[in-house]
Automatic annotation (TrEMBL):
It catalyses: carbamoyl phosphate + L-aspartate = N-carbamoyl-L-aspartate + phosphate + H(+). This is Aspartate carbamoyltransferase. Gene3D superfamilies: Aspartate/ornithine carbamoyltransferase. Belongs to the aspartate/ornithine carbamoyltransferase superfamily. ATCase family. Carbamoyl phosphate binds at residues 54-55, 104, 132, 135, 260-261. Pathway: Pyrimidine metabolism; UMP biosynthesis via de novo pathway; (S)-dihydroorotate from bicarbonate: step 2/3. L-aspartate binds at residues 82, 165, 219. GO terms for molecular function: amino acid binding; aspartate carbamoyltransferase activity. GO terms for cellular component: cytosol. Heterododecamer (2C3:3R2) of six catalytic PyrB chains organized as two trimers (C3), and six regulatory PyrI chains organized as three dimers (R2). It holds the Pfam family OTCace_N. Catalyzes the condensation of carbamoyl phosphate and aspartate to form carbamoyl aspartate and inorganic phosphate, the committed step in the de novo pyrimidine nucleotide biosynthesis pathway. Reversibly catalyzes the transfer of the carbamoyl group from carbamoyl phosphate (CP) to the N(epsilon) atom of ornithine (ORN) to produce L-citrulline. Keywords: Pyrimidine biosynthesis, Transferase.
Length: 306
């Protein structure tokens, strides 16, 4: 089985195939006949060890719209609470003959470990601070549908880069597709290896957003900051929160993105987040269903005879 464990290592043609396939599902999702039987008889399990609104719901919708059976396994109600290990949980689910296992886990590398133990496709729905590949794909589809291409665009990814698997997956994808990537953050919210990530590093919104085509804001992940430097939220907003004043140096009409969930008034001002012309935050959510349909379709469909 093929898996989707991260964007790192994918090629531009593979990313284009996923995006082209997703593109075809966008119109279907908007129409009356949203449900097809393309994956009828397939079984997909969502195994989420961390909270989620967008990713879990959209994987479930994606599976159902392709005619597959989708099961959400709640960790709270499972035998994980009785001490069953991650591997035993996976082997148990595997014995029920799944076609895909969608995994979100707080530890980086958990989906890869599972992929080595099960017979079905494993899709990473976010692992620790490592990757969130379907988020980067839906971000790419959103950009491509609005601006036609990713190549040559300047994308400023702003905020808590240190804790962000979304930033990591987007940096990989944007570099593979030929965009210019900037990260904009205080030094305390950048990973030590940032110099080896193929990005331009900025410590101020004034230089980081200058002439940017896309401004991608990230949530300040306060829950991952225990014991570390915890910025004052008001101070953080003053220097790194996106408002119209800071946005004014970007290209006219620059798109505003955020993977969600947002901390309004911390990393983004509500007026900017709700700007109906420039904010594409809800389009990102919409296209997330199509991207997850493409992933399930391409990873679980029967291999074509040679
Ligand atoms: N963007 C994202 O992954 O959101 P959820 O945590 O709600 O799935």
């Amino acid at each position: 089985h093929r898996h989707l464990l991260g964007i790192e290592g994918l090629t531009a043609p593979e990313i284009n195939l996923l995006l082209d396939t997703a593109d075809r599902y966008v119109e279907q999702n908007r129409g009356e006949n949203r449900v097809t039987n393309k994956l009828a008889g397939k079984t997909i399990v969502n195994l989420f060890f961390e909270n989620s609104t967008r990713t879990r719901t959209s994987f479930e919708l994606a599976a159902r719209r392709l005619g597959a059976d989708a099961i959400n396994m709640s960790v709270d109600g499972s035998s994980v609470k009785k001490g069953e290990t991650l591997i035993d949980t996976a082997l148990t689910l595997n014995a029920m003959h799944l076609d895909a296992l969608v995994v979100r886990h707080q530890e980086s590398g958990a989906p890869k470990l599972l992929a080595s133990k099960v017979n079905c496709a494993v899709i990473n729905a976010g692992d620790g601070q490592h990757e969130h590949p379907t988020q980067a794909l839906l971000d790419a589809l959103t950009i491509r549908r609005r601006l036609g291409t990713l190549k040559g665009l300047t994308v400023a990814i702003c905020g808590d880069i240190l804790h962000s698997r979304v930033a990591r997956s987007n940096i990989h994808l944007l570099n593979i597709m030929g965009a210019n990537v900037r990260v904009v953050a205080p030094p305390t919210l950048l990973p030590g290896a940032v110099d080896r990530m193929g990005v331009e590093v900025h410590h101020s919104m004034a230089t980081g957003l200058k002439d940017a085509d896309i401004v991608m804001m990230l949530r300040l992940q306060l829950e991952r900051m225990q014991g570390q430097f915890l910025p004052s939220q008001r101070e953080y907003f003053r220097f790194f929160g996106l408002d119209y004043d800071k946005l004014s140096v970007a290209k006219p009409g620059a798109l505003i993105m955020h993977p969600g969930p947002m901390n309004r008034g911390v990393e983004i001002d509500s007026l900017v987040a709700d700007d109906i012309h420039r904010s594409v935050i809800l389009q990102q959510v919409e296209l997330g269903v199509a991207v997850r349909m493409a992933c399930l379709d391409l990873l679980t469909a029967a291999p074509k005879a040679a």
